[in-house]
Design brief:
211 residues; alpha+beta; five-stranded mixed beta sheet; three-stranded mixed beta sheet
């Protein structure tokens, strides 16, 4: 429409890397933006008991540095910049074993004013310095009796969406102690004659548990 900016240009300006998500709705054709606020302090949408064999494959952690960022610089288009650095702690820029060394990143985004830069840089630093393993392969089979025998669990699996919290209770002894809480970042779904397999890609949920 003349006088309006193209949708693709507007989508480029949505700062999805700050915790918000741009995704497709489950019930209609289109695009939906899920805010970072909607991900805070949530109860688990789906809870799975590892000891009760409610997962269809082993639970393997990925304890890597793929998303580690401890030196973050955010620049506003047409404005200034803000840099946030974690100077101490296990995920800091200090040389190992006191830290992990410097993992720097920079990004230019569209913001209303320079006063928002510190929050944007600080949140990305918060996400990039989580000292936890992630679980990119939480596997379930919706045609297993674990789900077919429980309407509640089946419905929870069917309505879960990106950004939701997924809990795994009673993890194996060699894994993280206590309940593993993950934020759903994506999934792969496979339909077969006897299987309806879904592999959930999760990241630690702890950054979204805030005061």
């Amino acid at each position: 429409v003349q006088g309006r900016r193209p949708l693709v240009d507007l989508l480029r300006e949505i700062p999805t890397t700050d915790g918000g998500l741009l995704l497709e709705p489950l019930d209609e054709l289109g695009l939906r933006y899920r805010t970072r606020l909607s991900r805070y302090n949530r109860d688990a949408t789906l809870t799975l008991d590892y000891a009760q064999n409610q997962l269809s494959a082993s639970l393997d952690p990925a304890d890597d540095d793929r998303f580690s960022r401890n030196d973050v610089t955010i620049t506003r288009e047409g404005g200034t910049f803000n840099q946030q650095v974690l100077e101490s702690g296990t995920m800091s820029v200090q040389t190992p074993p006191n830290g992990i060394g410097r993992y720097d990143t920079s990004e230019t985004i569209s913001l209303r004013d320079d006063g928002l830069l510190a929050d944007q840089a600080g949140w990305r630093l918060h996400l990039g310095t989580v000292d936890e393993a992630r679980y990119p392969g939480v596997a379930i089979n919706l045609r297993h009796s674990t789900f077919t025998g429980s309407v509640t669990r089946m419905n929870a699996a069917l309505v879960m969406d990106l950004g939701d919290r997924i809990d795994v209770t009673n993890p194996p002894a060699w894994g993280a102690p206590g309940t593993i809480s993950g934020s759903l970042e994506g999934y792969t779904e496979t339909l077969g004659i006897l299987e309806h397999d879904i592999v959930l890609n999760t990241s630690p949920y702890s950054p979204y548990q805030i005061a």
